[in-house]
Fold this sequence. Notes:
Chain A is mainly α. Chain A contains 9 helices and 3 strands; from the N terminus they run αααααββααααβ. A two-stranded antiparallel sheet of chain A has the order 1-2. Residues 243-253 of chain A have low confidence and may be disordered. By secondary structure, chain B is of the alpha+beta class. Chain B has helices at residues 11-27, 33-43, 52-64, 88-112; strands at residues 31-32, 49-50, 68-74, 80-86. The longest helix of chain B has 25 residues, at 88-112. Chains A and B meet through helix 2, helix 4 and strand 3 of A and helix 1, helix 2, strand 2, helix 3 and strand 4 of B.
Amino acid sequence: xxxxxxxxxxxxxxxxxxxxxxxxxxxxxxxxxxxxxxxxxxxxxxxxxxxxxxxxxxxxxxxxxxxxxxxxxxxxxxxxxxxxxxxxxxxxxxxxxxxxxxxxxxxxxxxxxxxxxxxxxxxxxxxxxxxxxxxxxxxxxxxxxxxxxxxxxxxxxxxxxxxxxxxxxxxxxxxxxxxxxxxxxxxxxxxxxxxxxxxxxxxxxxxxxxxxxxxxxxxxxxxxxxxxxxxxxxxxxxxxxxxxxxxxxxxxx
Amino acid sequence: xxxxxxxxxxxxxxxxxxxxxxxxxxxxxxxxxxxxxxxxxxxxxxxxxxxxxxxxxxxxxxxxxxxxxxxxxxxxxxxxxxxxxxxxxxxxxxxxxxxxxxxxxxxxxxxxxxxxxxx
Lengths: 253, 119
């Protein structure tokens, strides 16, 4: 038995995934679809036939969002900013955590006495503490990027579709919001606590050596990060296709 | 029911005629999207059919240009619909477009006078 209501909802659900269509657009299309189906069923088509004819007349789920995106630039941009803001948040969070861990690695190396074998890089001294600190940064960043990529590419959490619907005020959304706001200050505070503890408990020389080593690690890491990010911007900007001209699809019977 | 006489009309021509068609249909009174599509079907004698979903982006663009305006209203059957209405600027634009299309039509007619049509 064909479920007209369910099929219509599924068809609209597919379109809802697109950022180019706002709620109002979806409502307008829904009414349109219902009108069309009613008309076709008056002509003697079955529910199933009417649904298929009506949806194929409306346009495919690839065409429709593309046409709407050309007019609705505002929601498209709102969505892009949303992703950018999420990206900045994630970056800030990751860089603070990874910075803290790599600094910890440098301190551990120096205080255990292994990190004093100086070798030359760019004419300045760099020791294995710096190298370890750098490696920790690279490894953790790669791991975090891989996790993020897998989570988003597979979208196993339904993240991208859930992101657009966050406006519904559920208590869970509120808790998530407060947690996200509290996260950054908490992280920076823990950084502060670690620094205070280090300056109280470790020898001054160890702290200084470790901080120089960590700075070295950070410096080399920043070169790597810059190369990676600029290359990514370069590659992505070349792979984006230019917009096609606005067209109406037409068919003749 | 295929009619070769009209097959293969260029998409550019369809896109170009969309605005004057919509404006002139709305010139006869306010309408919602589905009515406009049906009217286009009727006017073309069923020969020309738009992909329905493409109509709405065009309507929204005309609204952005200030040529038409829209309101949500509930119809008699209790279905909420978005009605589009021509604004004064739209009426002026319709007149301009009308003159342009009449001119082109006239030009083509004159150039075809005396020529033998193959159909």
